Amino acid sequence: MLQISEDDQLKDMCPICKTDKYLSPNMKFLINPECYHKICESCVDRIFSLGPAPCPYPKCGKILRKNKFKQQIFENLVIEKEIDIRRKVGAIYNKTEEDFPDLKEYNQYLENIEEIVFKLSNGIDVEQTEAELAQYEQDHRIEIIEKNMRESQKSADLIKYQDAMERLKQEKLKIQKRMELEDLEFTKLQQQDLLDRMANSSMTSEELIKQQQSQLTKRNSQRKRQLQQINSQLEQQFNQTNPLAKSNTKEDDSTTIPFTPFQGDREIHKKYQLLHIPQTIDEIMDIENASKGSYHDPYVFGLAKNKEYLGAGWRITNVFERALDEAFMGLGCNIETEKSVSV
Predict the structure, then answer these.
(1) 35 vs 145: CA distance, rounded Å
(2) 115-124, 194-203, 324-333: the lowest-pLDDT one
């Protein structure tokens, strides 16, 4: 059984050469899973470079090899030992829930693992437990190897999937940034065009602003649909090469498309028509009267008259458009709840 005092755990001095970590900050402590006694890296090189040798700790006597030493991860060596034991036992008892006919048998399997770890960690019937562990490994060698091979394949597929997802993400960001730069350049040109038209046109400033706002709204809608189509194409290409989806591919590809109850996010032409919403400055400043027979939201009306919001380009139309878009996409619609109510 591993017995370590608090002084030994907290001490930053090599018990062999008496080098203090305070005076030698670059000093590293190593431990060997045979006995978990802490020794500095220099002492390990000096004592074990010529081959196996007894542990220099008094009354230990375990024969240690240099290639078995490793850097200590946890400050508490008891935890360090338990982690190593769990890793060793887990490599042998490597079945998962899918390998059992029911949950009860799987839980029994897990309890058996915990009992083995507890005995080895606390020095209870160590020789007998290790002999049983070795016998189990011998009896189930083929199953263990097959399971490891399946898990290795899953890990490899997962790594490929993560790499593909990262490439997809970067490609989407690159396209989005390019479109944002194009939109920024377009906005500058529109501002210059508005100034030129204000100087030369017979139309009022409000009429010119309204006309340009209408054009910008149409263009933004087109750009949004264009970005959605590009992203959709990229995702389709990704799904065709997705390593994790190969084993689960079905004839019905509709299952790979995100579900929205009313398909509102895939309609090019909107299924609704907005009521009249105040657009001009005069209408906005008198929005309570100008919006009669249309939408009514006192809180949003207050924001609409805020000069900071107006100056930033925010318009009340955006609020009602977004609300209707979300409704037609089915956002916030709980299908299970709807079913229970209808029944």
Answers:
(1) 29
(2) 324-333
Find out whether 17 and 42 touch, Cβ atoms under 8 Å. Answer: yes
d(Cα 288, Cα 236) in Å, to the nearest integer? 47
pTM for the full predicted model: 0.44
Residue 225, in any domain of the structure: yes
Which residues span the domain enclosing 307?
281-341
Tally of structural domains, the chain: 3
Last residue of a domain, one of 72, 89, 119: 72
Structure tokens that stand for 341 in this block: 């109510």
Determine, yes or no, domain membership for 301: yes
- Does 295 share its domain with 231? no
The alpha helices in 123-204, defined as continuous H runs, are 126-139, 141-200
Identify the CA nearest to 278 among candidates 238, 310, 233.
310
Distance CA 126, CA 8 (A): 24
Q: Which of 77, 88, 92 is nearest to 32 (CA)?
A: 77
In a domain, 330, yes or no: yes
Q: Tell me the pLDDT band of 27, cut-offs 50, 70 and 90.
A: confident
Residue 147 lies inside a defined structural domain of this protein: no
